[in-house]
Amino acid sequence: MDNGVERISSNELSDRMQVTASQIRQDLNNFGGFGQQGYGYNVKFLYQAIGKILGLDKTYNVIIVGAGNLGQALANYVRFEKRGFRVIAMFDINPQLVGRKVRGIEIRHLDTLSDYLKQNDIQIATLTLPKAAAEEVALKLVEGGVKAIWNFAHTDLNLPKDVIVENVHLSESLMQLSYNITRHQKGKDEKL
């Protein structure tokens, strides 16, 4: 869409996405009919339909708990807002960070979290803090009504089933990258 493409075929999508055209058609058909045989897909309509499926047609209030380097990097990533994720507050216990602002977002003391949750409608909380504190903070978030947690703490959280948790394990992602590099290099060596 950013390139001015108005219509695209499953074969063109296949080339861009590195999956088969058949797989693309099957996947999209699971959510409804988006294209026409011989015509392809209207890019703007497909973009909007996929956005709706992913819940990107809404705006979510997000807080970040842990205002260190990773928390600040996430707060500074402006594309989240373009996708409907508004970071509206940050929390930390470090007195050198509390009171500072990151892109206009004040870093508050963690002691104020419970009151903040009572006064604001927060859909998503991001945890970028040490794993030793993650479970306790996550439970405070749940008590405050948060139903979705994006967890960067290097631990899996044990929370009620109605709370959605997306665990991000950076070391596992790096190991996956290492595996893919090794596989790619092995494929090159075999061709020689």
Report on the structure:
- The chain has eight helices and ten strands.
- The protein is an alpha/beta fold.
- The mean pLDDT is 90.
- The radius of gyration is 21 Å and the shape is globular.
- Strand 2 (35-36) and strand 3 (40-42) form a beta hairpin.
- The longest helix has 22 residues, at 170-191.
- It folds into two domains: 7-53, Winged helix-like DNA-binding domain superfamily/Winged helix DNA-binding domain (Arc Repressor Mutant, subunit A), CATH 1.10.10; 60-171, NAD(P)-binding Rossmann-like Domain (Rossmann fold).
- Helix 1 (10-17) packs across helix 2 (21-29).
- Strands 6-7-5-4-8-9-10 form a seven-stranded mixed β-sheet. Strands 1-3-2 form a three-stranded antiparallel β-sheet.
- 22% of the residues are buried.
CATH class of the largest domain: Alpha Beta
What's the β-strand tally? 10
Q: Give the overall shape.
A: globular
How are helices and strands ordered from N to C?
A: EHHEEHEHHEEEHEHEEH
CATH-assigned fold name of the largest domain:
Rossmann fold
**Fraction in beta strands:** 15-25%
What is the strand arrangement across the widest sheet?
6-7-5-4-8-9-10
Q: Give the averaged pLDDT, no decimals.
A: 90
